[in-house]
């Protein structure tokens, strides 16, 4: 029978928070990959955002290797870099493919413009063959039919969009709830199996276990994480749209950063321990504010689009 050491409430909460954070990071990029695939486009997401974020993950991996952190942290850092590469590859693929299609459409449109430049004259001659006033009545009726069809189409689009929006929020909420439950359950199983044990905080030597170079890389990673979202926020503001972005992607990012920081702070409030983990705390908790800005953009631009339509 497995023997367990005494587990305090703070240690248990720290372990649960860390496990939930791990679950969030594992599934973080999947929603955006699916969104890009569904739209066959990556126009909604900023490439600069992804490149700077990947730079943060690379410096995070280098710092973890230099500091000789636990294998799970290193494995997760490697997974981050792999997932970043997959998402970037998908974005470059769709951007290149759609750019080629746009060039072909432009060439075809130019050729059609030359062919159709005499079409209005031919149509006018054919209309003039009818009775006096018939062309005007026909044009007016055509305009009325066009307006009526457009109004019906817009009304139907609004109804479908409202339904899809409600369904999307429900799916996102359920997805976040499932990941929270899975993370907590994973920690409970690991604890009962003896695979997870509370780590004592050793500050007898002032907490100076981490090499200076690894600490510098940690701060560099934090700077990259903090700066990565700025291009995306600017892009959303410039285009007044969040179309093409996965809300669940940013929800998981928020949950992952929040639980990651909570896992560190719940483990110990010792000053040296806090300073040792400060780069990672800045990188995780600092981005929560930027995620909140993106959530506001989802709300503002989504509401604005609905009002216009």
Describe the structure.
The structure is a single chain. The chain has 309 residues and is mostly helical. The chain has one domain. The chain has 10 helices and no strands. The longest helix is centred in the middle third of the chain and has 60 residues. The radius of gyration is 27 Å and the shape is elongated. It is a multi-pass membrane protein. It is found in: Membrane. Belongs to the laat-1 family.
Please outline what is shown here.
The chain is mostly helical and 309 residues long.
Keywords, please?
mainly alpha, 309 residues, elongated
Shape: elongated
Number of domains: 1
Q: What is the H-and-E element order?
A: HHHHHHHHHH
What's the Cα radius of gyration? 27 Å
Largest sheet geometry? none
Number of helices: 10
Helices and strands in order, then pairings?
Elements: H1 9-26, H2 30-39, H3 47-67, H4 71-115, H5 119-128, H6 134-193, H7 212-239, H8 247-267, H9 271-276, H10 278-308
Helix pairs in contact: 1-6, 1-8, 2-4, 3-4, 3-7, 7-10, 8-10
């Amino acid at each position: 029978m497995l023997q367990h050491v005494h587990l305090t409430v703070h240690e248990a909460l720290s372990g649960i928070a860390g496990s939930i954070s791990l679950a969030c990071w594992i599934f973080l990029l999947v929603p955006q990959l699916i969104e890009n695939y569904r739209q066959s486009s990556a126009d909604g997401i900023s490439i600069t955002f992804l490149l700077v974020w990947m730079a943060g993950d690379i410096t995070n991996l280098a710092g973890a290797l230099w500091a000789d952190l636990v294998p799970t942290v290193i494995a997760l850092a490697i997974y981050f870099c792999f997932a970043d590469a997959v998402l970037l590859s998908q974005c470059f693929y769709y951007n290149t493919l759609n750019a080629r299609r746009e060039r072909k459409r432009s060439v075809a449109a130019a050729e059609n413009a030359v062919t159709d430049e005499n079409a209005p004259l031919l149509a006018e001659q054919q209309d003039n063959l009818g009775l006096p006033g018939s062309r005007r009545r026909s044009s007016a009726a055509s305009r009325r039919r066009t307006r009526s069809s457009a109004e019906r189409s817009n009304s139907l689009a609004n109804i479908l969009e409202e339904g899809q929006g409600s369904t999307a929020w429900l799916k996102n909420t359920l997805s976040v709830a499932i990941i929270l439950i899975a993370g907590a359950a994973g920690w409970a199983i690991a604890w009962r199996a003896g695979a997870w044990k509370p780590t004592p905080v050793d500050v007898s030597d002032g907490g100076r276990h981490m090499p200076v170079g690894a600490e510098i890389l940690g701060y560099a990673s934090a700077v990259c994480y903090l700066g990565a979202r700025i291009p995306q926020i600017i892009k959303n503001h410039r285009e007044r749209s969040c179309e093409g972005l996965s809300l669940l992607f940013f929800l998981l990012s928020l949950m992952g950063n929040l639980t990651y920081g909570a896992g560190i702070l719940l483990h110990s409030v010792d000053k040296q321990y806090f300073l040792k983990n400060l780069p990672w705390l800045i990188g995780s908790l600092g981005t929560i504010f930027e995620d909140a800005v993106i959530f506001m953009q989802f709300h503002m631009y989504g509401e604005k689009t609905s009002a216009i339509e």
